[in-house]
Amino acid sequence: MLRYDMGEGELRNWVIGEDSFNVRYLAKYEAIMSLGNGYMGVRACTEESYPQETRNCFVAGTFNRSGVSEVTELPNIADVTELGIWLDGEGFHLEKGNIEEYP
């Protein structure tokens, strides 16, 4: 579940975080926790991949369209955030096993 009250002191009501993992909310959390600096932006997805996720990394000022009648869109660039984690030959996945502590 998303929480908006995780900051303390001066950061009170300025820190957003998750207190549990639910694959149902991946798209919402990816959009809310995206990160950008005005030039490059990364959609905030988990390190391990899930079928429901949308991985994106964009560079401002670049556009993509295949025909003059199409709306221009920011093209995706290479995703450098995905990480494959393997334990005893099995891929790590937050939906498998027991989560003892999150985050």
From TrEMBL:
Which is a GO BP term held by this UniProt record? carbohydrate metabolic process
The record's annotation in InterPro entries points to:
Gal_mutarotase_sf_dom, GH65_N, Glyco_hydro_65_N
**SUPFAM superfamilies attached here?**
Galactose mutarotase-like
Q: Which domain of life is it from?
A: Bacteria
Gene Ontology terms, MF aspect: carbohydrate binding; catalytic activity
Tell me which Pfam families the record gives: Glyco_hydro_65N
User: Could you tell me which residue ranges the Glycoside hydrolase family 65 N-terminal domain spans?
Assistant: 18-102
Q: Which Gene3D superfamilies match?
A: Glycoside hydrolase, family 65, N-terminal domain
Name-wise, this protein is Glycoside hydrolase family 65 N-terminal domain-containing protein
Give the lineage: Bacteria, Bacillati, Bacillota, Bacilli, Bacillales
